[in-house]
Amino acid sequence: MSDLFHIIKQRRSIRRYKSIIPEMELLKELIESAIMAPNAMNRQDWQFTILLSGETKEAISQAVERTWNNLCQEQSAINDAIKAYMGNFTTFINAPVLMAVDVKKPPIFLETLLKEKTIKVMGSYASACLAVQNLLLAATAKGLGTCVYTGCMAAEQEIVRILGIPKQRELVCLIAIGYPAEQPKTPPRKDLEKVVRII
């Protein structure tokens, strides 16, 4: 158990990687750890796409940059702040491996019944997030670095097209994976008193 807590505390978001490509068997091990996560009604709605192609990663990076530039065409203090941060949305281009995680969309009858509550009730997104956390911790235990990207979701339609993800599925996030070329310091965390409520 102490080893688990050590891995949890050791995990970092890595944005600089060595050029070594992790072996496919190792990547499959990470996914095996991911799919052991709890999931809604054991539907296992998740799907993992492993990207090794530099051209595909470049196409996704360009789509993300193009989308955010279009969103920030109007000059304002907010847009300037977003532009200053936009570079973080595409640092996955430096990773040897990029993994896309997608899930099955809710059925139409459920969306009709629950409307905006559908995603929370169906649980596919929550299940995918639990699987991703398993994957991140397994990667850390294997000496790999990872980083989860959601800023790229602004370009979801283009990414889905590039990856050939079926229409009945939707993207959750991208994960960069590789051997780390940096060792970031532990970022500060809020005190428990600020994030815990006891009723």
TrEMBL record:
Nitroreductase domain: residues covered: 8-179
Classification via Gene3D superfamilies: NADH Oxidase (3.40.109.10)
Sequence intervals crossing the membrane: none
Pfam name, any one: Nitroreductase
Keyword Methyltransferase: no
Alphabetized UniProt keyword annotations: Oxidoreductase
PANTHER family: NAD(P)H NITROREDUCTASE YDGI-RELATED (PTHR43673), NADH DEHYDROGENASE_NAD(P)H NITROREDUCTASE XCC3605-RELATED (PTHR43673:SF10)
UniProt family annotation: Belongs to the nitroreductase family.
Designated name of the protein: Nitroreductase family protein
Species lineage: Bacteria, Bacteria division CSSED10-310
